[in-house]
Every structure is written in C-alpha cells, then in structure tokens.
Amino acid sequence: MQSLAEGGVKIGYISHSMSGFHQGPLYLSHGPFRSGYMRFEKHVFICINQRETGDRPSCGEQTGMELVREFKRLTRERNLKTRIRCQRAGCLDACDFGPSVAVYPDGIFYGGVKPADVEEIVEQHLVQNRPVERLMIDFGK
Ligand code: FES
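Above: the input entities. Below: the structure tokens describing the complete assembly.
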C-alpha cells in the first residue's frame, strides 16, 4: 500500500473545519511506514478530562479511563503497539461531543464514544484505514 508520502488514500473532502486550515481533500496515511520522522503510524488521543465545575460536559466523568484501557487492550491483542500509540489526553476541545477521541495524523475526531465502540474503531480505522463515519464529529454542523 501507499504511504502518506506517496499520496495516501483519498477518502473524502472536507469543506470546513474549526480552524479553516483543512479545506480540501482528506487523505489517510497507511503503512508500510517509511518516514523516519514519525514515531507512530497512528496516534490515538483519548480524552479523560474531568472538570471540577459543571459548566461544560467533560469526557472523563462519563467513561474515565475505561476507553483508554479498551484501546490499549485491543491494540496489544493485535500486536499493534509498535505502530499505533493509544494514550490518555486532556481536553480535546470537543467537550460537547464527548466522550471524544482523536486519531492523528488523520485528524479524525470521534464523539460519543462508548467502550463498546472501541473495537470497531480499532478494526476499521486503525487496522483497515476506514474511519467509522457514524462516530465522526462534524464540527461544521
Ligand atoms: S473534556 Fe473531553 S474534549 Fe473537552
């Protein structure tokens, strides 16, 4: 398969984003990974933020570390740990859509993620490079 450096795979077109910097075709990178500059093929950030005040929802109050444990368990079982890094993160600024998960370098944000959704994200997105559309956050709405 092609790497991102070779053009990646066009999966769609983003017409808007929060920053406005991502207008244009959306490409996904996939292995074999040839760049010596990137440590991981994909990096998954799982928000576990918990706010002390209740002015905005926070992902960690809903799922705590449960999502992190499930991502780590499933990537370990599939021997993906050298290629894919899953780690807890602070607020991803997608609080109203949480629990939130971000996958880079793809720039895909998932919202409303439940532990039962993690296997689908791992299998479809992390292994097969097919983002799980039903969980993707559309920041343009
Ligand atoms: S608290 Fe999770 S994205 Fe903000």
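Note for the figure: The first strand starts at residue 9 and ends at 14.
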